[in-house]
Write a structure and sequence with these properties.
390 residues, alpha/beta, TIM Barrel, 3-stranded parallel sheet
């Protein structure tokens, strides 16, 4: 009798677990921001090899995770001497992987090609250029990266460029470009108009508030915020304030959640600063070898995993950002932009791309419907992609 009661008690959980796995499997899962291309160059590895223990992503793990569409970030910081050349190098990196694995992954330039790749059970790949400095203030270079498969461009990274100011510059740097000019210049507005005409999504992650409002008032197409969270829950300088979230709703755009602990939990940044200070000598040594700050910290985070683990927020903290945005703007305006392989810490449980189904499980447990979960996991960003193609 006791055994029978035990089985009955477990049965609802078994059905529940199966439900979330089916939902995750049937959804078109889209991640709008992953930095594996930069990680491969910095760590001298290839994405089509087994990179467990080295990165948060690789080609086999995308498949295992049920990722259907991946927008690969093309990134370099503002100190790169030839940012346009660097952008093309990162695109070459993905092209090489595709050429070696034509049965597993395909570069897709529009929604029709994306659907074809999915029917062939391939990972549909696109580029997202993270930082307008990489077009070097040249609209022709914008055209060329679009031709290569870039389907969004983040107007700035942390650094401003000659035509747009960043969130970091507008809020933290008194001696920056933002001291004399904030927002988009006339040329910056021309960039927005050109992106609209191409069908290239305007990405407002990283941009300063004035740049945000200038872009919202200039664009004629829905925008994306490819990897950002809610400022009300974590006051990181580049998270979105409530009026910005409402503006994205009015525009018809989508905000894709960033997994970086520092944009999820306000207490994390102090912990990260302490971690860097505790390992300052090793950090300096790595940087002297030519490894950029972000990936030097990533190497140290791997080496001292137990220290990093203690500082990580719970998964519920990330889901709180999702709930907040849904309550404020509605279910049609939120998605996933993990920032995997560009971050040193993520919420507990989200160790790499294979843990995406934990989000689906949490959404089911929170009472989101299957239709709503499909929108969050990919439907919303695909809608914005299609609307930009019109």
């Amino acid at each position: 009798m006791l055994k029978k009661l035990f089985i009955i008690a477990l049965f609802p959980f078994a059905v529940h677990a199966q439900d979330y796995k089916k939902i995750h499997q049937h959804a078109i899962f889209v991640d709008s921001h992953n930095d594996i291309l930069t990680a491969c160059i910095e760590k001298n590895v290839s994405m089509d090899k087994d990179l467990k223990g080295k990165t948060q992503s690789d080609l086999a793990r995308f498949k295992e995770a049920g990722v259907d569409v991946q927008i690969f970030s093309v990134w370099c910081d503002g100190n790169q001497k030839d940012p346009y050349q660097w952008a093309n190098r990162e695109m070459d990196t993905l092209d090489a992987v595709i050429s070696r694995n034509p049965d597993k992954i395909a570069l897709t330039r529009n929604y029709a090609e994306l659907k074809k790749a999915l029917k062939q059970h391939k990972l549909a790949a696109m580029f997202g250029v993270e930082g307008g400095h990489m077009i070097e203030a040249d609209i022709n270079k914008l055209n060329k990266i679009y031709e290569r498969g870039a389907r969004y461009m983040t107007l700035t990274w942390n650094n401003s460029n000659s035509w747009a100011t960043s969130a970091m510059d507008e809020t933290l740097k008194k001696d920056s470009l933002a001291k004399t000019h904030k927002g988009l210049t006339d040329f910056g507005k021309e960039i927005i108009k050109r992106m609209n005409s191409l069908g290239m999504m305007v990405d407002l992650s990283h941009v300063g508030e004035q740049t945000f409002w200038d872009a919202i008032n200039t664009t004629t197409k829905p925008v994306i915020v490819s990897h950002s969270n809610a400022y009300a829950l974590c006051s990181a300088f580049r998270n979105l304030k409530d009026d910005q979230i409402l503006a994205i709703k009015k525009n018809g755009g989508v905000i894709d959640l960033n997994f970086y602990s520092g944009f999820v939990d306000s207490t994390f940044k102090l912990k990260e600063t302490k971690f860097a200070a505790n390992h300052a000598q090793e950090l300096d040594s790595l940087k002297k070898q030519g490894i950029i700050q972000e990936y030097a910290l990533s190497i140290l985070a791997d080496k001292y995993a137990s220290e990093v683990q203690e500082a990580r927020p719970p998964l519920s903290a990330l889901l709180a950002h999702l709930d907040y945005i849904v309550k404020l703007a509605g279910i049609d305006h939120v998605g996933i932009g993990s920032d995997f392989d560009g971050i040193t810490s993520s919420p507990k449980g989200l160790d790499d791309v294979t843990n995406y189904d934990l989000i689906t499980k949490a959404l089911v447990e929170k009472g989101y419907s299957k239709k709503e979960i499909y929108k969050i996991l990919g439907g919303n960003i695909l809608r914005v992609l299609r609307e930009n193609e019109k």
